[in-house]
């Protein structure tokens, strides 16, 4: 299993609260299914970070892009493979 850091940059803060619960529910479901290593918001309001666990980058991106924040343009995605040491 590989790790992928998903930077979720805030794009439309005015929509953040509207889709927040859907985003949190989405992540909670993935957490239960074992797709998430860690997750949380940046304290400066710039967005958040999710570290996904997946077989490859294609699968990690496929999973990440289902986030309601991304679907609704609230945040943008920057995905990088991450090496846990």
TrEMBL record:
InterPro entries found in the cross-reference section: Dimeric_a/b-barrel (IPR011008), YCII (IPR005545)
Residue ranges occupied by any YCII-related domain in the UniProt entry: 14-83
SUPFAM superfamilies named in the record: Dimeric alpha+beta barrel
Family per similarity comment: Belongs to the YciI family.
Protein name as it appears in the record: YCII-related domain-containing protein
Organism expressing this protein natively: Terribacillus halophilus
